Each structure stands twice: as structure tokens, then as C-alpha cells.
Request: fold
Amino acid sequence: MSLAKPAVLPKNPNFSSGPCAKRPGWSLEGLKDAPLGRSHRAKVGKAKLKLAIDLTREVLQVPETYRIGIVPASDTGAVEMAMWSLLGPRGVEALAWESFGEGWVTDIVKQLKLKDARVVKAAYGDIPDLSSVNFDHDVIFTWNGTTSGVRVPNAGWIPADRKGLTIADATSAAFAQRLDWPKLDVATFSWQKALGGEGAHGVLILSPRAVERLQTYAPPWPLPKIFRLTQGGKLIEGIFEGETINTPSMLCVEDYIDALNWGKSIGGLDALIARADANAKTLADWVAKSAWAGFLARAEPIRSNTSVCLKVVDPAIVALTAEAQAAFAKKLAALVEKEKAGYDIGAYRDAPPGLRIWCGATVEAADVAALTQWLDWAFSSAKAELSIV
Reply:
């Protein structure tokens, strides 16, 4: 017999892992100062872009010696720009434990075709042996695996005296997990994930060591215009002052500024991290009592507080074929969505069957709590349809 439908819906049922929920209290009125119809190269356009960069530095607590640039093509564009511009002079360690990390491996092995490349993999739910990483090489990794819900526990595994560069895809970690800047030479994110901003733009953050590499190394392959960070062996400083490589959406930039100002208003990075932690704890407290739901991430220290991935552990469902388990997980998400209790909570297409629930700072803990009641209802309803105990 299935449970009765819960009485309370989440006030905001948006739990997508990207684009993520808008900040609490968001409205189009907050974007009224966007310089629409104006050139991004005009004084007003460059001032807005520079403000977005300055607020990013302030809220994320990025050191003054690091450069911050707004780049094309979301986080993917930022990571690709870093790889194609920086990799080559040293060996590369490519870490992968979910689909986005696998994508960077493909670039390194099949596109750039780097000869001295070592791929270090782990299955979904696990993380590679971080102690095995060779930091004489450049190292690329995802700080938080968006599609597996597995994050690095900290940056203690990265030595301060490393010879290679560290490149961190931090798109689902920024503004929710504390990035250890002295341990990172490149960090990337897209504000559509981090703070619920509108899509298509990425942020690229470079340490002085990364800038030095850019100015002393010329890749042997052709670089598309949107990847070029130097001219005549010198860094194009304008990119890091608001002169973007291609045309940005000033409406999206205004939306990002709005989200950053909200982050400042509630207490900055500490408050944003605390909100994500509280959301993830609400989900974890429910999982601890659940007879059917478990975390995909097998160990608590590597469990994400943003892109939380769940699996069905009920023995009757686990006994089904892989195809039937996948169909059951999709049924759960569809039932919840049909009731307008939670949108976009299905697992990523390349991940094991299950659910993925965004718990970043723009989500409210009360909405997460309400969602869990609907998850229990959906599970009981879907299982009842199968007529199994």
C-alpha cells in the first residue's frame, strides 16, 4: 500500500543541479539596472563586468594576486581554455570519478593527445587514491563531482611545493565549499550552478604560477580565438578587467551581480557554505532514517553538500534487473515532478540510476525537508505499482 500524499509542497520545487534555483526573493525587478542594448565595450558595460569580477573576488575570498576572468561557454569553456592553453610542458595526471572528469580525460588523451598523461580513475561513488598523484606533473581534477556527488575532502593532498600546476573544475563547489586557494593554480566555475545565475558564461581564476606558465609557454597546437589568453607572450590583462573575449549577455551579468550581492548581504562565503551544509544535513538526516534511500558516495568525508546523489537500496528494487532499476528511478523522479514537488531530480544520464538533488546555497532547508516527504510517497507509490513487498 502506498503512503498518502504529503500535505505540504516545497515553496520552491527547483532542485536542478544546473542551472540551479534562483536565490531566495529573486525577481526580474532586481535586474532593472542591466545596460541592455548597450555595448559590453562601452564604459557602462565594462564597469558592470569589472564589478562582477570584483564581487567574485570578495565573496569567494580570492587572493589579490590571482586573476579572475569572465569567459565564454560556461564552466566547460573555462576548463577547456585552461587545458588547451597551459598543458603540454609537463606530464599530466588526470583524475576522473564521474562524467565531467571523464570529459577532461578525453580532451587530454584523444584531442590534445598528450603523450605523458596518466589517467587515475575511480567508479561512481568512490574517489581515486589521492596520495598516488604525482605533483611533478600538472594535475586536473573536479573539486566536486557534480554527477556522482563525490568531492575531494580537502586540499591536504596537494603539496605547497608542487612543481606542476593544479587545475580544479570547481563548478559545483564554488560558493558552497571552501576552496584552498594556495593549493590551486586554476579554478573554474559557472555561475549558473554556483549561485543560480543564467547560463552561457564561465569564470576562470588563475594563480601567479599559472600566469607565469602562460607567458613562458606556447602550445604546439593552434588555439581558437576564444581560448587565447596571451598576445605576444604577454597576458591579455583586459580579460581580467572586464574586457571579455566574446560578447557576454549583460542581462546574465546583472543576474550574477544580483546573486553576489545577495551572498554578501547574508554574510558572505561563510553564510553561503552554512546554507549548503544545512540543506545537505536535512537530506542526510532523512537518509539516515530511510529504509530505501542511500548515498551514492560511499564515505561521508567525500560526500558533496551541493549535488547530492542518491541510490535506491531497498532489497526488492536492488534485486531487479539493471534496466528495471533504472526505470524505477526515473519513475520516482517523474511522480515527484508530476505533483510539482520537485523538478529535475533524476540522476545524470551517465551516472548510475538514482536521484540527484541540488542543496547549494540558493535552496531553502525547509524545501528540502518537504521534498523528502514526497520522495517517500513516490517510492511507496512506484513500488506498489510493481506489486512487490
User: Anything to note?
Assistant: The mean pLDDT is 97. The longest strand covers residues 67-72.
